[in-house]
Specification:
2 copies of one chain form a homodimer.
Chain A (H helix, E strand, L loop, with lengths): L1 H8 L5 E3 L8 H9 L4 E4 L5 H12 L6 E6 L8 H10 L1 H6 L19 H10 L3 E5 L5 H9 L3 E6 L2 H9 L4 E5 L5 E2 L14 H11 L4 E4 L5 H9 L4 E4 L1 H4 L8 H7 L8 E3 L7 E3 L3 H6 L12 H15 L22 H11 L3
Parallel strand pairs in A: 1-9, 2-3, 3-4, 4-5, 5-6, 6-8, 8-9
Antiparallel strand pairs in A: 7-11, 10-11
Helix pairs in contact in A: 2-3, 3-6
């Protein structure tokens, strides 16, 4: 299974760097890809020009394959009353930071589901691999990308999502377990979530779908990679392992939290962005623990406020509102250059 | 690590049958132990005489090692007002079954933490292995059991609990991941739960404690066993895999649910017993999904009502209130004799 997947992806090691919008960088992708893994660029949280620039930055220094990640969330269902109440709810925290909340919230990311400009850019640039999070593009988009020779991956948190990915023409599935840091890839964030752990999910998908499976969630070292491969995955995708790398965009506070006691207490929250995401605990997640999902605006509308609140707090020299995403493997994070980490992982792999 | 653990437990295969009160049986324990694994008896939910009888039933047919499991929960903090409100809350469901709820609730299980009669019985019978769930006995009990030559295991859902087990003199730790079916072993059910998945937990404990680690949660076949061993466990404990075995006490409705679509939607609930436990979804868990933990009586007081409600419903020919515990591996459950399953698992193991 591993040989088949590595051949598909054009890489030497069964190691994918997770895309991690806000944390990854072209330098990280270059380091991982040049070391024999698959580096990734997060294009879901920026526009077309930002994505094109990241691709250019990688290609200026590497001709190895890389993965361009796109968000395919269902466009936000707007709810003006809920959004206004949400702004009011956080007014005291803005006031503590000496700032006013935004007057209104915006849908800050365009879903690839309806982003024709992004599709045109991707077809023109033709990254070796494109991966989808939060859902699947329509048949026409998939057909166009496949016709361009691009290998397509999609996140799945359940057998049903994996089967949908298979039916939609993906080349492989990223099995995202409950352990995983950052945004959970559930296609419908309001549906019941079985919260399936990486081990159980990988094994189930390996048994029930024909596509190669890439395991994600809680994998931090060579033994973790060996474990998911024993469970039937062809490769592992690691995000949290790279947060403390030199090429990461994580700031000092984020790195300190990751390497401290908080790492043992990651929490799944939707308060920051409007979708469930695993995060190091902070003031934001604590306050959010008692808020009903029905009160939180849709993703990424809620994230507009979350980012504004974090920016206001930081300007005032306060901490506690950042999106410090991390998975349950966080206690095993290592601070080193991404290339060194990738080579270390390769050396640790036994299988 | 596996050789060390098998030597400690006196078994041939890296396979432990989970104790599973209400599902396991002496026949199941015999089948697993005779096949080379470690069978288990659940003594936490019965009294001393029930435990002695189960031990006798096993010894009449096998001289292989087995594991006697005990509950070491903190004795329930009683709350008459909460318990009365709890009885009232379920009055309509009792009425639908043509029954009246109990007038008052009782602490139906005695914790081994204060059960001197159970200690005396265990010291007299001397099972090869004793395992603890929900906590650890005090130093005097541990010393007495160790002096009797009994190998001691304890469940841990976090590094802190595993470190406590190590400090208390356990011989090995059962790393119970979020995937696991039945009651979560958290020492304090009211403390924040990091919900750590099996893969992340096993790897963390393998890296941070010196004791052998037994992995539990989501393991259903030889590849699952290989996976957790690659992650650093010496053996795997399987519960859900044995629910559909011939020797299981699971009734027909439970088996049908386990082998149906519900298997993909297990849910963690504390409504049935007062402590978080992973269960197949049913009327009880659905109703419980909107109930705040503060409203639920302490374990095992709430379980007194849960068992009464299930009994009343069954008497009326209704279903939906049973404690149909199952882990996230449930979709891979197989119906076969426990000995055949154990031998099949052994044949599937590659490592």
């Amino acid at each position: 299974m591993t040989a088949r997947l590595l051949d598909l992806l054009g890489i030497d090691l069964p190691i994918l760097q997770a895309p991690m919008a806000g944390v990854s960088s072209p330098a990280m992708a270059i380091a991982v890809s040049e070391a024999g893994g698959l580096g990734a660029l997060a294009a879901g949280a920026g526009g077309v020009e930002a994505a094109r620039a990241m691709i250019g930055a990688v290609r200026a220094r590497s001709n190895r394959p890389f993965n361009l990640n796109l968000f395919v969330h269902a466009p936000a269902r707007r709810d003006p009353a809920r959004e206004a109440a949400w702004i009011d709810r956080w007014r005291p925290q803005f006031a503590q930071a000496g700032a006013a909340p935004p007057d209104r919230l915006h849908e800050i990311y365009t879903s690839f589901a309806r982003d024709d400009a992004m599709l045109a850019m991707v077809l023109a640039e033709r990254p070796a691999v494109v991966s989808f999070h939060f859902g699947l593009p329509d048949a026409a988009r998939v057909a166009a990308l496949r016709a361009a020779g691009i290998v397509l991956l999609a996140s799945a948190t359940s057998l049903a999502e994996a089967q949908a990915a298979e039916a939609a023409g993906m080349h492989a599935v990223v099995a995202q377990g409950w352990e995983a840091g950052g945004h959970r890839g559930c296609f419908d964030p309001d549906a019941a979530d079985a919260q399936t752990g990486t081990l159980a999910l990988v094994r189930l998908l390996a048994r029930r779908i024909a596509l190669p499976v890439i395991a994600a969630g809680g994998i931090m070292d060579g033994a973790g990679i060996d474990a998911v491969r024993a469970a039937g995955a062809g490769a592992a995708q690691l995000g949290t392992a790279y947060i403390a790398s030199d090429e990461s965009l994580a700031d000092a506070a984020y790195r300190a939290a990751l390497l401290g006691d908080a790492a043992q207490h990651t929490t799944m929250t939707r308060v920051i962005s409007g979708r469930p995401a695993r995060c190091l605990p902070n003031r934001f997640t604590t306050a959010g623990a008692t808020i009903a999902p029905e009160e939180i605006p849709a993703y990424p509308v809620a994230y507009d406020l979350g980012k504004a609140l974090n920016a206001a707090a930081r300007t005032a020299g306060q901490t506690g509102f950042g999106a410090q995403w991390a998975g349950q493997g966080a206690p095993l994070a290592r601070a080193m250059p991404a290339a060194v980490l990738t080579r270390t992982l390769a050396a640790e792999i036994k299988a």
